[in-house]
């Protein structure tokens, strides 16, 4: 028996089947968040959507997502009308569960289209090893399965739109790309972090390039670009024009803390750890709530200086600039590759230094990076490094006892690799540390992952910038890695 | 290669752990509950009573309420799990008071014990079988066969969904098959004796093992060598039996009591609706009105032996590894079709050898495997496992589709496969949409079992034909 290389649709079927199987898996409060949004958009007039606060889970996504919830609620009406009552907090009937879970799975069709379109835009030949590896990596992406189909969110279709936008850009259909990206921003504003590479690329290779073509003009193309790019914003925010400040306060809540309740594996996780260690060494009495107490609120560091939102933004932008400059100066032939790298690095910069980053945001790095794996072997090696740390960092999302086995086995089968710090479940139990230091496992998970992500960030940044670096791994090892990695993944 | 194998094993564990999230047999259905409660009850009995009392009816051990009816190794296994359960929460296995005990933690615990069986016994054993097949026949399809072996939905749905420990007995039997393929008959005898002592249903596999090992001994070129081989094999088997049956070795009466529990001739010829010959015959010719129950047992025995005979004689006369696998497959189907007191789940015993044949007849065997899950659907539906069953079969089918074999099926074969699959899908679809009339509430399970029976009869003939025409290298 031989493996068929062109089994894209079979893989789509397998991943859909897997997602449906996961329906009874323990979900997070995000399930209630989305049920509440269904209720709000269905039972309240438009002008109350962003004011309603019966539930603590207020609507804090841009209007397109609200419209999307409204559309879903039109179907939900026939499934179980009681899930659409705002006061019905934590309502969770069997029909609601199936409806919400299946809606995520159904919306993933857009993601499938995005994957298909990206694979062909990148010139991956159908039926080749790469095509198979790419479909596997993206269609059965363990991160998306964790976050969307166990934890519960609607990231799949939004990444689908992102992939469609990326593929349009690679195919040189610039206006279409700008349009889809603008639509995406109106679904979930966190993708703003990816806007700089799109902006720079379009400016350089559409507006400026167009100016060189006969009959083209810089200003006319810029105008077209802006018109296309701003149209979705008008449609989206138009109906809310008189309550923009309220929406903005919902979309950008700066009263939240530097780190999320569980620390995303970024520079601030290391910073917090250093602060904790320093506080322990210096025996400073900690003032205010501890950083790992689980409350979403402002925190103060005991020893190291406190970080403000403007500092995080400054750092993010500083770290984005070099790669954007490199993208601007790259040649036309190299530009798609550089563009993808810039997307990954901008996502990673914001993940590293951003304010109140969620661990889920690492997907913004991992999914574009999966595309790069198919094009370049060297990139594949970096993708593997980030994958180990990145997917591992999602584990705290799956905290239910019944999910311990699935999360490890999913992760291992995806990575085909064992090197997990088993501290969390084995060693800490042995030493009885989980009673004395309850935050220890979480802290270690995030510190470990943070080191991995930081390492990746540094190495990959230098690599993408073209800075030569003393080769650590022999080139031979690299080659065997990427071919074996692909074979590994086909088994999934 | 190693990492791929590990990744497949992890996929298998993922699949099992997801199915574990679903409901189990007898969830929230007092007073008798289901197999889940049976397993828990055995832990309760084995922990709280002396081994000698395990199979005996008493005020502390009501055999009417899920009395132990599997051989001693199951009882010892229950005892082991019971000890662990006791250390987690003594309420799980408190005598009398724990009946029907169900909680989230308990479910997680019980599911993990099955998963442990999968990881420690079943998956390594089937990996062993795949490696041995790969080595013996140079088939070069290790990953393919391991993937399809490990992801077979029938075993996953019954063990991790419905709740049983077939993985232990099937795993031990698989280890025995691997040992035979590797030419280690003593290990095979040992592993198979353990399997037989875990579930008496392993008798389905016993005749080919017996024939093959006996043939191996007879093939010795001197009388002395023959005696040594036979002696060692017999010693291994008898010693294992003695060890496991030690608590009942005091008196013949105790042994008889256990045996009576294992082979309850007082029960009816089949339970519920099973895809076997007797259940189908019962529709047109009511067995109960024509044949006495104890006569029925003899009739069953005769039919079973006669139908299993051709393939075993062929195996004896022309001993080869391929013939051994085919003979296992044929004998298991013969037992399923004709023996006494057959359950739906015992189809898994025919599925195990069929998985070994996957490399050579992928199309036919995949049909067989999907059909085997089809015959268990009424049972799984009762447990609330309809959605995972259909999903698992779908995933399995798609995984199969990701591979293609060099040998293309002929157009006739192709038509047969298509018609069969459409027929199965139509029946499943119809049974979900059309409600059975109140006069015949069991209409759909009955249709399922008759069709299942017809297919099994076909596969019995097919298997025998393949075995008779099998060229396989003689050893």
TrEMBL record, chain A:
Sorted alphabetically, the Gene Ontology BP terms of this entry are: protein N-linked glycosylation via asparagine
Q: Where in the cell is it found?
A: Endoplasmic reticulum membrane
One Pfam family from the record = Alg6_Alg8
> What is its pathway?
Protein modification; protein glycosylation
Top-level taxon of origin: Eukaryota
> Which keywords describe this protein according to UniProt?
Endoplasmic reticulum, Glycosyltransferase, Membrane, Transferase, Transmembrane, Transmembrane helix
Its Gene Ontology cellular component terms are: endoplasmic reticulum membrane
One Gene Ontology term of the molecular function aspect: dolichyl pyrophosphate Glc1Man9GlcNAc2 alpha-1,3-glucosyltransferase activity
Topology relative to the membrane: Multi-pass membrane protein
Q: Which residues form the signal peptide?
A: none
EC number of this enzyme: 2.4.1.-
State the InterPro entries in the record.
Glyco_trans_ALG6/ALG8
According to the record, the segments passing through the membrane are: 102-125, 131-147, 154-170, 190-209, 221-241, 303-325, 337-355, 382-399, 411-427, 439-462
Sequence similarity: Belongs to the ALG6/ALG8 glucosyltransferase family.
What's this protein's name? Alpha-1,3-glucosyltransferase
* Encoding gene (name): Dper\GL26756
From TrEMBL, chain B:
Superkingdom, natural source: Eukaryota
Q: How does it sit in the membrane?
A: Multi-pass membrane protein
- Compartmental location: Endoplasmic reticulum membrane
User: What is an example of a Pfam family matching this protein?
Assistant: Alg6_Alg8
**What transmembrane ranges does the database entry give?**
109-130, 142-158, 170-196, 226-248, 295-315, 322-340, 415-434, 446-465
A single GO cellular-component term on record: endoplasmic reticulum membrane
Q: Which is an annotated GO molecular function term of this record? A: dolichyl pyrophosphate Man9GlcNAc2 alpha-1,3-glucosyltransferase activity
> Which InterPro entries does the entry mention?
Glyco_trans_ALG6/ALG8
Q: Where is the signal peptide, in residue numbers? A: 1-20
Q: Which Enzyme Commission number(s) are on file for it?
A: 2.4.1.-
Q: State if Signal is listed as a keyword.
A: yes
Q: In which pathway does it act?
A: Protein modification; protein glycosylation
Alphabetic keyword roster: Endoplasmic reticulum, Glycosyltransferase, Membrane, Signal, Transferase, Transmembrane, Transmembrane helix
EC top class named in words? transferase
By sequence similarity, the record places it as follows: Belongs to the ALG6/ALG8 glucosyltransferase family.
* UniProt name for this protein: Alpha-1,3-glucosyltransferase
Which organism does this record belong to?
A: Drosophila persimilis (Fruit fly)
